[in-house]
Amino acid sequence: MTLTRRSLLASLLAAPGLAADPAAPIVLPARRNDFQQLLVPARIDNSLPLWSELDSGGGGALVFLDAAHAAGIGVRPMYPGRSAGAVDGALATDWRSRVHLALPGVRFDEQEVVIKAAPLPGDKDASIGMMVLKAFVVELDHENTSVRLHEALQFRYSGPGQTIPFTIQDNNPFTAATVTLRGGQQVQAKMVIDTGAAASLAYFSRSFALRNGLLERSLATAPDTMQRTACRVERLGVGAYGIDRAVVHAFGTQGFGGQAEPDGMIAADFLRRFRVFIDYSRNRMILEPQRSYSDPAAFEASGIRVHRTPEAPDALRIYEVLPGSPARELGLRAGDLLISLDDVPANRMSPGMVQEALTREGREVLLLLQRGEDVFTLRMKLRRLL
To answer: How far, in Å, CA of 116 to CA of 127, rounded?
Structure first.
């Protein structure tokens, strides 16, 4: 793998704040998505910038593209491979290629790309396995929306955070977590540190949930329609840090995390509460709490999950209605279109904005919906589901 640093900056997109000092970190422009993950712009074979997540659970030095994005930038499948996503029960055949990958200030030649048939989840164009950047200490500053790459050999940390050791197995970083269940019982879990796992504090495999009675010993549970169950536990802890009354998810089917099925994954809603340093050269993560550290673990109070689809650009499509929820009781269905929420048009709201508005239990909201040719309004009283 060839690394060429600031001399290539002129051929890349501008990087505001890039320091001239060779010992200073590379500062990457970044933005936050609806899941509070940090995305950075990357070029693949001189493409336009692609907003890309940095995925510490990406299974190695791999870049992931979906087939549509790959075709759009001229990346052609060259040879087959096999991989599994977090929720896949078995390895599946995919296609691979090799490309030049460039971030502002750094370039990687002959980088392996995994071309996935299905679109990548979320609002990202690509996913970069963080082990691509293992020559650096990767700093994710969620509060200031920035990503910095520190030269590993020169990096010295002197802040107030805590060092969390990890081991590398199957090209993923594993560390220990403590789950406190109802009545104060504590169980230990061996967890993948996964910045790419969104929409939860943590995910647990079926085998871990069964072995430890996770559903039975949680404070409350709420199943969804995708064979997962949201669980509120007393506390989820990593090192000295922890979130009280944490909302985590347990999978009901075998194969979470691929065939190896780890205990679980520490996910983005936990990690976004910290300034995070991933240091592969020293097998450690450093967590430095930010203002959001004390944010309560929220769970939406309507029962609907929405996303944006190309065929309905001015609306948000409901893709799931939770059992036992206000939305299910009012007869909402997967496939219904949300046109507006409290008279705010859906084309002015992201899916994350809608989900945040629907966590406010006790509030009544006005929904304008479309089902087929029918347009109708409903008033929904939000209530605690978990």
So the answer is: 11
Q: Contact 227/325 with Cβ under 8 angstroms?
A: no
- Residue 360 is given by DSSP the state -
pLDDT in tens, 354-385: 999 999 999 999 999 999 999 999 999 999 99
The residue whose two tokens read 């069964």 is 210
Residue 82 to residue 95: CA distance in whole angstroms: 8
Query: By residue range, what is the domain housing residue 311?
Result: 304-381
Average pLDDT over residues 334-338: 98
On whether residue 291 sits in a domain, the answer given is: no
Kindly indicate the confidence band of residue 261, based on its pLDDT and cuts at 50, 70 and 90: confident
My answer on whether 85 and 26 are in the same domain is yes
Mean pLDDT of the chain: 91
Tell me which residue of 307, 301, 311 sits closest to 338, measured CA to CA: 307
Q: Using a pLDDT cut of 90, give the percent of the chain over it.
A: 83
Does residue 293 fall inside a structural domain?
no
DSSP code for 351: H
Read off the pLDDT of each residue in 243-260 and give the average, rounded to a whole number. 85
CA gap 301, 220 in Å, rounded: 14
Identify the residue whose tokens are 């502002």.
Answer: 104
Q: Residue 158: exposed, middle, or buried by beta-carbon count in 10 A (0-12, 13-18, 19+)?
A: exposed
Q: Quick one: how far is CA 63 from the chain centroid?
A: 15
Query: pLDDT at position 42, please?
Result: 98
- Domain ends where: 92, 119, 154? 154
Name the least confident of 122-126, 209-213, 237-241.
122-126
> What are the tokens at 39?
């995305």
CB–CB of 230/247 below 8 Å?
Answer: yes
53 residue type, one letter: E
Local structure of 199: helix, strand or coil: coil
Helix or strand holding residue 337 (H, E): strand 337-341
Compute the distance between CA of residue 307 and CA of residue 323 in angstroms, rounded to an integer.
19
pTM score: 0.91
